[in-house]
Amino acid sequence: EATYPSNVVMRGTTVVDGHGVMQVEKVGDATGYGKVYEGSQIESDVETPLQIQLKGLAGVISKAGYTIAGVTFIALTVKFLLSDSFPGMPAMDIIAHILNYFMVAVTLIVVSVPEGLPMSVTLSLALSMNRMLKTNNLVRKMHACETMGATTVICTDKTGTLTQNQMQVYQTNFYNLKDQKLGEDELSNLIKEGISTNSTAFLDFSEEKVKTLGNPTEAALLLWLNGQHQNYLELRENATTLDQLTFSTERKYMATIVQSPLLGKKVLYVKGAPEIVLANSNRVAIDGTYKPVAECKAGIEKQLLDYQNQAMRTLGFAYQIIEDGMDETFFVEGRLHDTDLTYLGIVAISDPVRADVPPAVQSCLDAGID
């Protein structure tokens, strides 16, 4: 009876972990996706702001027309009754005069109705549709132009609309990495091999712009590696993966044990939520040495808070070199067990704002739209 039952896969769902078999039970509008689509359809019976205003204008004009016509009819009739020619006038002439005044009143009512208004409104909306088309906006319903013109607040999603929909590394903080540039030293080898092998994402170089496949956060790390002129795929294929815990929201980290050709030993690589990875680490590689976690924890937490206040996504990295003869039971019931991890640092990742967004937002603000 849950909103989203745990044994049901919705259309549009992305499977990110595990294996399974699915049976299709509903299609089209019967799916959850279809119900959302049906609910988002435009209600054609809802009056637009312009229709409401025109209705109000019509009411004012009608009342004014009837009032003026009534006053005019009464005034003309009273004037006729008080005239010198009224006494002794034949009944038929009196009726003819009153009918004439009534016709004047009816004429006033008729001419007060602006017959050209609906046509002028339609022409105005049609011209607006044409103008919108020239700016690559296809308006399906004529009244949409007017409705957009009456907008006071715009509600928009962020990803892909305000941002580029491609996560990118904003800043790296591998504490012992000089200038944050990868080289051929042991630390650089640990970082580039850890990012390459402890990942389920891929990069697609088939087009001019590099496309990312899989987890966007992991793909951002691969893009950073690529920007450092490192071939992640070669590093991944050269190293033999011995065991792996894929990322899950429950444990909030991913861990991989590989046979490293760069270090000539087995290495356990861990990445995930910085505070979780730090809690599983015994030391921090910082200031060219190794310090206990307790000494560095406050500084790292402050750094994380600074990134989070900028709406950055952060990842922490750690490793353990597995010496020959060491007990290799590091994964128990899907979690890290009895490890001796060294914390390498953190990476801040963001989805950059599209270049055309700030001017567009400013245009909306200048137009009085929130």
What can you see in these coordinates?
The chain has 370 residues and is α+β, with helices and mostly antiparallel strands. The chain is 41% helix and 18% strand. The chain is built from eleven helices and twelve strands. Strands 1, 4, 5, 6, 7, 8, 9 and 12 form an eight-stranded mixed beta sheet that branches. The longest helix has 33 residues. The radius of gyration is 37 Å and the shape is elongated. The two termini are 39 Å apart. 19% of the residues are buried. The model has no long low-confidence stretch (mean pLDDT 89).
Please tag this protein with its features.
370 residues, 11 helices, 12 strands, elongated
List the helices and strands and how they pair.
Blueprint: H1 32-39, H2 49-81, H3 91-112, H4 117-134, H5 143-149, E1 168-174, H6 186-197, E2 202-204, E3 211-213, H7 216-227, H8 232-238, E4 240-245, E5 253-259, E6 266-272, H9 274-279, E7 281-286, E8 289-292, H10 293-309, E9 313-322, E10 331-332, E11 335-336, E12 341-350, H11 357-366
Parallel strand pairs: 7-12
Antiparallel strand pairs: 1-12, 2-3, 4-5, 5-6, 6-9, 7-8, 9-12, 10-11
